[in-house]
Amino acid sequence: MTRLIVWRHGQTVWNQQQRIQGQTDVDLDDVGRQQAAAAAQLLVAKNPDLIVSSDLRRAQDTAQALATLTGLPVDTDSRLRERVYGLWEGLTHPEIEARWPEKFQQWRRGEPVTDVGIESYDDVGKRVSAALADIAERAQGGTAVVVTHGGAARHGVGAFLGWANTVPHTLGPLANCHWIELRQGRGGAWRMETYNVGPQL
């Protein structure tokens, strides 16, 4: 049966600083590169047939760690990018809270935030879910590793599984270089097999 492994990229300096990245193209830091190498050693045992990555560097460089071990090419899909965070990109959590205290608390509660250019949960879920559906079709009974971002992974997987927008907020954050495993069972139904699995560094 088809298997999708939805893998979050490794750590960046902005991750460490709790700085919102969104679609800003930030590189992996040294820890992130170590995480990617360690995770790739675990994922190669799953015998992937296909690697597809967000076109942002932190995702592509994470994917390349697995590509080096498998010999597979890394295909890119811009639909796998992180959620757009508009005016908040590049700012730390305390900076956002100081400038937009009510909106920051709405965001922390998983509620929609308007007027600052943030992509809606519905929109990010739909675009990432569409990418996952296309990748699953390409995998055709094999295993595809999909390298994406924390928010995009949760909301994209939620939409792919038919969840309401509120459900992904009941899950804890997806750690850097950890993954979600989805399997398609008999009859075509998809289910989440594992969540937030990865190397412990």
Relevant terms:
7 helices; Rossmann fold; 2 domains; 6-stranded mixed β-sheet
What does this structure look like?
- This protein has 201 residues and is of the alpha/beta class.
- The protein has two domains: 3-84 and 120-197, Phosphoglycerate mutase-like (Rossmann fold); 87-118, no CATH class.
- It contains seven helices and six strands; from the N terminus they run βααβαβαααβαββ.
- It has helices at 13-16, 30-43, 57-70, 93-99, 101-108, 121-139, 150-160; strands spanning 3-8, 50-53, 74-76, 143-148, 179-184, 190-197.
- It has a six-stranded mixed beta sheet with strand order 3-2-4-1-5-6, with helices on both faces.
- β5 and β6 (190-197) form a beta hairpin.
- α2 (30-43) crosses α3 and α4 (93-99) packs across α5.
- The mean pLDDT is 96.
